[in-house]
Amino acid sequence: MSKKQITGQAMGHNGIINYEVDVQDNKIEDLKILKHSETSGIFNQVIDKLKQNIITEQSFNVDTISGATVMTQALLKSADKAVTDAGVDVQPVPKKKAPKTQNLRTDVLIIGGGEAGLVAGCRALTMGQKVILVEKNGYLGGATILNGSNVVGTGSDVAAQIFDNNHDTPEMLAQDVARESLETNYPALTDLMVHNIGPAIDFISKFADLHYQKAQTQTPEHSINRQIELPSASSYEFIQKVSKAFAAAGGQIMLDTRVEKLMLDNDKKLRGVIAAQKDQTVNIKARSVVLAAGGHGANQKMRGTESEGIDYYGPMTSTGDAYQFNGDLDLQTHDLGWYKLYPHGVEVEPGVAKLTTYASKQATDMGAIYVNSKGDRIVNESNVYTTFRNAILKQADKVAYLVMDERTWKKVYDLLILHDFTPEEIKSFFENKGKRPVFVKGSLESAAEQAGIVVDELVQTVKNYQGYVQDGHDHDFGRDPKYLHQFEGETFYIIEQRDRFATTLGGYSVDADNLQLVTTKNAPVANYFGAGEIIGGANGHDSMPSMMNTWGISSGYVAGAAASENAQRQATAGDDEANIVAIVGTNASKSYNRKLLYAMKELFETQVNFEICEIKDLPLFNEDDMDREPASVKALAAKIEAADGVVFGVPEYDHSIPAALKSAIEWLSCAEHPFKDKPVMIVGTSLGIQGTVRAQMNLRQILDSPGVDAKVMPGNEFMLPQAGNKFDENDHLNDDGSEHFLKQCFGHFLEGLELASKKTVTN
């Protein structure tokens, strides 16, 4: 037995990935990651899926993971070369041919696997609904995965225990939101958020076994200590535990599934979505849909001039896809130019930043100061984040510098490592002198020179500040004395600070009572609800720290309940979608007419329920057996009776319909009478040029006979000639003209069903 451990390196998105491939007897047994610099919350999900695909298929020629294409492609290419160079000959496992179209049905469909979507899905599950969640990326988390887990617990039992009943109220939280956003918030949505975050935190904590604790940082924007976080301080813990609980409760998660189009009926009612996977189309019908697809920060075309010069640190997949697939609905939007700006970021590549919020806050708590390139202080370093943000924006280069001593740097370093930086990455920042981001150390004069700051001015600024500390009074900005601390030692550290954003604050407009999406005419869109970043307004033009998570969790909680109640109402009233039974008119195992009906199912499944039924299991009709009606006949008759309409796919045998079909209709017009007044459409295809014309005429005569009494659709006969050339390898129609005519005929058939239904109601 031959066993090898093959090591290699790949260049990921953030740096080198060291890996090991374990091979035994030319078979891949494991892929181990030894070291990496990627975002852990994303990488941990992606690598597990990638490894599973590699081992299952015994090949590195597997699909990359959506949302992490650069990293997974580099790893696959490098590992493939390393294994080949090691002389290992791995034999791939033949791939199973996947169906080109998958049709699914659910009560509630969630679009988006971030915080809001997961909470909405969990809430719907607990209300008794079947739930499917689709996510376009190959991992869960959305923009949430890049942030901390900090949130407010106002009104929750969880917070009451943590803060020992600190008397926080929804009204106090709403006042803080309005004050900090300069009254730009939408009061009705703010009210929904502050009154639901407490129940939402209690709900999701119990559902997913989350153990919140007091957040290590209580920011001054909040008038009372109310911020909580998970023990890891990472949102990955939230996503991991909540998604696991969602799946355990029966929720279905579909990754790498990108919504491309909505299923709408003639009245613009939402019926579901059409989504794309790498190897197939997925049609998902749903009674209710929750849109939690995230924002549009990574879409440069959707961003206005107000975002120029501000770094982006959110997921590069936040491209605002929903604004494309919702195009047919005339949805109302608001404030698409609002962004949640933070002043704590370092530019790790042009236009892209990483957050340093926790580290920067720790630095200023210990006495660090903010200066500009001239060496002057620019802000009260203990003020609220919005003041920092505006101060940095006022600088000509939109950059500030955080100046600290070595004592402070040690604490800052620990927090950078905890929040998405690696030791190697930080080391490289210091080594790459003269390049962004600015990370320098040395004497004050040396550090200033390396950072490009006016040396003499910075020296004077620090001297003045040391005097303010000694006096116990900040003569420049009135900084709180408890944050005035002397710089210690002769070594200084200077790191850049840039405004950056990950999330957008505007988006689609909703009914504030239940988060139902509305059109530009303020009309609610049937069966469609929103949650999370894509539904903006609750926090106004600028949200306080912890409030993006607060909105995501509370809005998901409300939207999940509203979608569930809507789905339950539909289930109770009975779905108004047409039920079509399609009958294969032959007992032959191979039939082009069967192919035609399945092609119709794929074409029209988004509009109706299209069930294909066979007659091959029905016995030959015999009048002597009338008193012993076969169960198979009863079952088919019941389906036809319950259907809104019937489609026959009829072959032509000797200028007539097949004997098996004639026998089936005899059963269904003698023992049963399900066709009476039933709307019927006839289609057919043949190898010749006449396309079952005689068989269709024959079938019309039979269906019009006493005892059958069907209402056969007049005109619009669909006859497909030369069947051998009209289907591709996946049994789809490959003739555009024929497909167009088939859609036209079926459309007229559905119109006939609606007219018949209206006449019935009138009578």
From TrEMBL:
Keywords, in A-Z order: FAD, Flavoprotein, Oxidoreductase
Domain FMN-binding stretches: 12-86
Enzyme class: oxidoreductase
EC number(s) recorded for this UniProt protein: 1.3.99.33
Name of the featured protein: Urocanate reductase
InterPro entries cross-referenced by the UniProt entry: FAD-dep_OxRdtase_2_FAD-bd, FAD-oxidoreductase_2, FAD/NAD-bd_sf, Flavoprotein-like_sf, FMN-bd, FMN_Rdtase-like_dom, Succ_DH/fumarate_Rdtase_cat_sf
Co-factor(s): FAD; FMN
Molecular functions per Gene Ontology: FMN binding; steroid dehydrogenase activity, acting on the CH-CH group of donors
Top-rank taxon, per record: Bacteria
Catalytic activity: dihydrourocanate + A = urocanate + AH2
Entries under SUPFAM superfamilies matching the protein: FAD/NAD(P)-binding domain (SSF51905), Flavoproteins (SSF52218), Succinate dehydrogenase/fumarate reductase flavoprotein, catalytic domain (SSF56425)
Keyword Nucleus in annotation: no
Family: Belongs to the FAD-dependent oxidoreductase 2 family. FRD/SDH subfamily.
GO cellular component: membrane
